[in-house]
Amino acid sequence: MFKHFFIAVICLTGLAPVLTAADQIEIDGITEPFKDVTLGLADPGIIHQQFFKEGDSAKEGDVLLELDTRLQELEVGRRKAVMEQDKVVLDSTRELFQGTKSVSKQDLTKAEAEYDVASAEYAIAVEQLADRRLVAPFSGNITEILLHPGAACAPYQSLVRLVDISRCYFVGHIDGVAASSLHLDEPVKITVAGGATVTAKICFISSTVDAASGLARIKAIFENADGKVRPGLAAKLTAE
Fold it and tell me: Is residue 18 predicted with pLDDT exceeding 50?
């Protein structure tokens, strides 16, 4: 595919490109985790409990940290009691309206409205309680916990960094002209600093070229369930 011409290998560090044989493309780049997020909470408060430590694995839905929830728990209990009482009133009003007609349609409509409002307020209280808990949005490894129990946190302050390294990306840049020789889903080889070699698949080729450098961004994805590759290491992509 690549006969009769040479491909420039572009190094992310900005060094001069190196020429390699025309039957293969080599691109220097770096490895990145499949997902990498720093989590926070919308509510301010005092961190009450920490359920994981740095280095632990967490599953999607696990509670990582929890703010003080005493007031929110009391409000949930209060709203639930009001809702249950309004449900009793609604059921008895409906029974009287349908059986003896001793209450008016207006009375039944009022009871239904009061129950609907109480149900909505209970649901809001439950959500406000849930908002006091920092929940893992996906399964991954906890690489950093920035605040611990007893510390005060502001809204949306960074609290926990969670990464998913079960899959990883290779990210690099290639000469814009040479990029047309590569294709999505094309199998490639990734050699990571330290000697690890994995098979990857091209998942992104930029549709634009940087006017200043003449480079296009490229990404390849590979499986890393065994954690053999530590994201952040330099790597080289080879396509034949």
Answer: no
